[in-house]
Amino acid sequence: MNPQEIYRQLPVIETERLLLRKMMMKDAEDLFEYASQPEVSSYLPWQVHQSIGDSKAFLNFILEGYNQHSKLTWAIELKSSGKMIGTIDFVSWSPKRHKAEIAYVLSPHYWGHGLMAEAAAALLSFGFRDMELNKVEAPIMSENKQSQRLAEKLGMIREGVARQHMIIKGEFVDLAMYAVLKSEFILTE
């Protein structure tokens, strides 16, 4: 595992229905379509996108992160349509500690179809196999039961609650701390 190589050449990860790939400026309209919906960001630190300009600014932030070799953010593209329907990231990666934190967001039009579980399982497999991770963590707002169910479906275990761990929408919030170890996860091809 060479961290700089992974940052420099973010790999495309393919599943049965999805492509996980680098984000591109052409994703702005697809991003705005879901990032402008309040239910999408209700448990996330970022605000609802008010204009396509907000989505383009976010994309510029990600693209600059790619250039600086500091972002591990994948667009989730639906293979059947070529539409970008969400993102999935390792928002923090500590190669020396062999751990990372996963985060994800999906358009509500695609909730309930197992797509995020498919994307997350593929990214976890990549992390454990190619990034030599031993542990992947997922801090989730205590009220976000849907995301907690997904974490559990992925084999993550709730390790506890980090009290007032983060500020979201101007308020301190508790985060349910989920994690899965390489030894507990069944790798997918």
Quick summary of this structure?
Helices cover 31% and strands 33% of the residues. The protein has 189 residues and is of the alpha+beta class.
What distinguishing features does this structure have?
single chain, 189 residues, alpha+beta, Aminopeptidase, 8-stranded mixed beta sheet, 8 strands, 31% helix
Indicate the low-confidence ranges by residue numbers. none
Question: For this structure, what is the CATH class of the domain at 3-133?
Answer: Alpha Beta
Work out the helicity level.
25-40%
Give the CA-based shape.
Answer: globular
Query: How big is the Rg?
Result: 16 Å
**Distance, first to last CA:** 18 Å
Largest sheet: 8 strands, mixed
CATH topology of the domain at 3-133, by name, is Aminopeptidase
Give me the CATH architecture of the domain at 3-133, please.
3-Layer(aba) Sandwich
Give the number of DSSP strands.
8
The succession of helices and strands, N to C, reads: HEEHHHEEEHEHEE
Structure commentary:
The protein has 189 residues and is of the alpha+beta class. The protein has a domain at 3-133: Aminopeptidase (3-Layer(aba) Sandwich), CATH 3.40.630. It is 31% helix and 33% strand. The chain is built from six helices and eight strands. The protein has helices at residues 3-8, 28-35, 38-41, 52-67, 115-130, 145-153, and strands spanning 13-14, 18-21, 73-78, 83-94, 99-106, 135-141, 157-168, 171-181. A hairpin with a 4-residue loop joins strand 4 (83-94) and strand 5. Helix 2 (28-35) crosses helix 4. The two termini are 18 Å apart. The mean pLDDT is 92.
